[in-house]
Amino acid sequence: MSLDTEKTPQWWKKKDVKQTFVIWVILTPIIGYVGSTVQIRSMGAPASETMASVINLMGLFTWVAAPVAALVGAMCLTTLLTKSHYGDNPPHEAENEIRNSPRANAIWVSISALLCLFALVVGLIVLQKDAGALTDKAAMNINVTGQQWVWNYDYENGARSSVLYLPVNKPVVFHVTSKDVKHSFWVVQMGIKIDANPGYVTETAVTPNKIGVFDIRCAELCGLLHAYMQNKVHVVSQADYDAWVKTNATTEAAA
Amino acid sequence: MTTTMDRPASAPGQSRRSKPLIERLNIFTALALGAISALVVWQLALHFLPQLPDGQQYFNREDKITLLSMVAWFIGFMTGIGALIGPFRWLMGKDLSHDENMFYAGKDLGVKRYFRYTTDHKVVGIQYLVMTMLIFFIGGTLAMLIRTNLGHPQGGWIHPQAYNSIVGTHGIIMIVGTIIMVTGPFGNFIMPIMIGARDMAFPRLNALSFWLIVAAAVPLIWGQFIGGITTGWTAYNPLASQAPLGMDGYIMFICIFAISTMVAGANITTTVIRMRAKGMTWNRTPIFIYGTVASVALALPAFPVFFLSQIMSAMDRALGTSFYDTTHGGSGWLYENLFWIMGHPEVYVILIPAVAALMEMAPVFARNPLFSFNIAVLGIAGISGLSVLVWAHHMYMAGWAPLLNAPFMLTTELISIPTGMLFLVLVGTLWRGRLWVTMPMASIFALLWNFMIGGITGIYLSDVPADAFLHGSMYVTAHFHYTLMGAGLTGALASLVYWFPKMTGRMFDKKLSWISFWMVQIGFNVAFMGMFLVGLAGQPRRVETYAKMFSRGNLITTIGAYVIMAGMLVLLHGVISSWRHGVKAPMNPWQAKTLEWSVANPIPLENFDVLPVVTADAYGYGKAKS
Known about the structure:
The complex is a heterodimer.
Chain A: H1 15-43, H2 49-83, E1 84-85, H3 102-134, E2 140-147, E3 150-154, E4 160-161, E5 164-167, E6 172-178, E7 183-187, E8 192-196, E9 202-206, E10 212-218, E11 230-236, H4 238-254
Parallel strand pairs in A: 2-6, 5-11
Antiparallel strand pairs in A: 2-3, 3-4, 6-9, 7-8, 7-10, 10-11
Chain B: H1 21-24, H2 27-48, H3 60-81, H4 85-91, H5 98-104, H6 121-149, H7 160-183, H8 185-194, H9 203-224, H10 239-242, H11 246-274, H12 287-318, H13 332-366, H14 373-387, H15 405-414, H16 416-430, E1 435-436, H17 439-462, H18 464-470, H19 474-504, H20 510-537, H21 551-581
């Protein structure tokens, strides 16, 4: 190809680049909006700050990933729409001089490194917050014991139950263990999970901020009736909680 | 083996009535000897192993008997197929003669060579191809059982124990199937020709690696009849130590398969390093070769760990050791670490060759040079290197080492950089190309779509706080199906259509390849989008029943799964009908520039009469000659 500058416009003035740019501008918000909305709707309403931040993270990451996905999509679409050949024989070989482009490589790698760094920093900030909740001195402690295929909860006053009761807006630390095989203690709408290991105690913490009934499920295959190893957490007001601990827990412990 | 095709055939000896042992052994003698050995050892163990007094662990004696019988099967089968003849003759000081070696290579044996310990890499490649299809057929049938059971919230027509076993078996055999799906058929059949070699570096090891997989399959099937594999494919301890005897089938299966993978890895790596054609420098070596080598080289450190983890599991079950038993000083976390030190490199063992195969096809079907070969190599190397440093992201929620979550989050997210390089190479190659729209070309777009979704969801999962919600849910299941199936299997199916003319001498039926492509891709995306949604709504993995709120998403997934099944059956029909009476393929139907297209159909026994000399890389399309 000649070096005649009149015939080869600068790269951003080329037709396919312009087409790609237009498609990219259209695709980015569509991917970001659809991706984040569908995922956030599926996750349902959060029952704790922890879960709210998980939902925000998913939305944020989707929006940050959208331009990248849209760029790949736009380049594919442009090529596919303008350069397709059908038939039993291959088209002529492309008259392309681009075998490599140090500039494109450098930009691509730098942007992916920056996005990677961004994801890491955001993750670390939230992780730090979650880790801090474990050492909250004001938190109440509940011992959780998994066994095939039920959960049992021991409260600070010696009460025991097989359905979890929690007071609203009070930090709680779960000390989780197992009597037999590995289980995983998952309070779905509160966005926390920790494995229950036989012989060890693991910890996780949360502050429920909504009154209601939520799901607890086992998230680690634990044998025959793993699918049935689930029960409910009742988040109630402090007054209701105090009343419940006094009356119900002792009778359930005796049972 | 430096001879050419012109040597006289070993025909004269065939008129003799008594054939030498080497000519008698085949798959039937192997099955018979394996079965007899297993039965004999089973009876011996039953009679002579001492009964345990009451109070001892219940399974100990039965586990010993089962494992001993399975080891006997293994040794009997490998002896019966003839794996020991070479080493034995060498020990006796009577190494195999040239004619015997030619017999081993399957010379003039016709169809029979596919049922023997044949060393020709092309025969091994076809054997792997059929094996892979068989595995996908069985694994796919199991997947359909799972999806049918989950079509309705109550599920329930499969007993929970059988259901758990189906889930575990589906998992492990699909993992094995996807590990071998590219490096097995195409790494063995195509790779040596692509680098201009006459065979693999160690032809007998090549046969060994294939027949080890056949030997491994039987304990897994056997295990289904003695309680099944009820632990999921991960077989976590202590669940595995209380699982029924079928677990021993899993353990034997993994141990034998690990040996097969190590043998194949050493063989392929050596072949590529030592046997490339004259002039094929590393810069002129096709990118598919890099992918294959990266994959098997990654398996080399990974699978010994897998092997070891299962040996320790077997000892815990049968010999009363306590590697994984917390009450006697062991730890289940040890198992999880060993398992995932294998398990995370292993997913890239699956993915890299499939992506590399599509990178090999991209220049051919875009009629355009491969964009930035160096970045492609760097991407493959970067993924391989980082993949051994990320295993504990499977254990964020294990409670094993909370302080390590942050560093493992770092290494995991770093993998997105070399992965992004692979995207750049593919998109850059398509850019301004002239796209020849064929099924392999469409597969490149399908890979970009599926792998983009699999990759981005992987970033959510790598983030510890988000993983606290997502871990152990259907979201994870959907994510890794998007990477291993959406990206991996798509690459393997494209490879099948692309290399079919060279492997069988016939073109793959174009219409059938398109029908199956669209059915598999649409069905796949419907199925696993539905699975993402129920995962986000909170459905755990590996459950045989679920709350009513998940029923819509599960129904979508089940419908999608049936579409995939129909698409795969169309593909199977395409393979069989094209193989039997497809259009005869020209030497180079795609007008590609790699060496395997420069040999005639059918390919002669040692590929090349005169070994080729390479003067440029295979991507000199258009004006960009190099």
